[in-house]
Amino acid sequence: MSAPSLLWRGAALVLLLLFITAPQLFAFAFEPLTVNGAPAIYNQGSLLSLTLSHLRIVFLATLASTILALGLGIFVTRPSGREFLPLSRSLVNIGQTFPPVAVLAIAVPLVGFGEKPTFIALFLYGLLPIFENTLTGLMEVSPQTLDAAKGMGMNPRQRLFQVELPLALPVILAGIRLSVIISLGTATIGSTVAAKGLGEVIIAGLQSNNVAFVLQGGLVVALLAVLIHDGLGMAERRVSAKLGRAADEVS
User: Fold this and answer.
1) Residue 220 and residue 132: Cα distance in Å, rounded?
2) Which of 25, 190, 237, 243 could form a disulfide with 118 if both were Cys (CB 3.0 to 4.6 A apart)?
3) How far apart are CA 43 and CA 220, in angstroms?
4) H, E, C per residue of the chain
5) Contacts of 33 (CB under 8 A, 6+ apart)
């Protein structure tokens, strides 16, 4: 990554941290967006606390999605599980079939208000990209590589963990990255069912007709998405470079 790109990303991170910890420093920038003496900075809670809650629910949902999607992807690429591939695809597509609001409407009567229905919606929405990328990564491992591993005396478990998953890891990470970015945006609607998060700021702005609040919530989510997207992208590139060096050493 070039020096100017690192500089811009570093500046964005510092700006984000400064805004969520000391938002009153930026009041002058939002005051022109307020009317009738409305507050320029969200004052119904801590932006830092809401940001941490937002990231927490996204992390937990993505972790759960990764565990299930990765497990399903491995299972249906084994000889004993290939016949279950259509069924698995149908299951992971459930989250993409229904809008998040519909999932929340179904989940609230079952689990109540708060983080639980939001977790369910994010969990279902995050399955598809991770599952499909797991399939793609595992199926792209060349048969020659697997034959070589088999010839070295590796059993199926060893081939999976020492050959297939390491080679598929960059593609799997790309799926996880996409899932995280989808969840960051989708999590904002969780505030409609009393889940703590940055959606609370946006909804408060919409209810009070305060554009400043809406913009604050949206900007924090956008900056989080850009920074996390870049961070995970750097991790993918490092893994790919490491695998490339390992392949060169072997050859």
Assistant:
1) 29
2) 190
3) 15
4) CCHHHHHHHHHHHHHHHHHHHCHHHHHHHHHHHCCCCCCCCCCCCCHHHHHHHHHHHHHHHHHHHHHHHHHHHHHHCCCCCHHHHHHHHHHHCHHHHCCHHHHHHHHHHHHCCCHHHHHHHHHHHHHHHHHHHHHHHHHCCCHHHHHHHHHCCCCHHHHHHHHHHHHHHHHHHHHHHHHHHHHHHHHHHHHHHCCCCCHHHHHHHHHHCCHHHHHHHHHHHHHHHHHHHHHHHHHHHHHHHHHHHHHHHHC
5) 40, 210, 211, 212, 215
| Token digits of residue 214 | 């809406």
- Residue partners of 193: CB distance under 8 A and separation at least 6: 104, 108, 113, 114, 117, 118
| Residues 195-231 pLDDT 10s | 889 999 999 999 989 999 999 999 999 999 999 998 8
Q: Which pLDDT tens digit goes with each residue over 162-188?
A: 889 999 999 999 999 999 999 998 999
* Closest residue by Cα to residue 50 from 230, 229, 213: 213
CATH architecture of 43-250: Orthogonal Bundle (1.10)
Q: How many CA atoms lie within 13 A of 19 on its CB side?
A: 24
Q: Which amino acid is at 25?
A: L
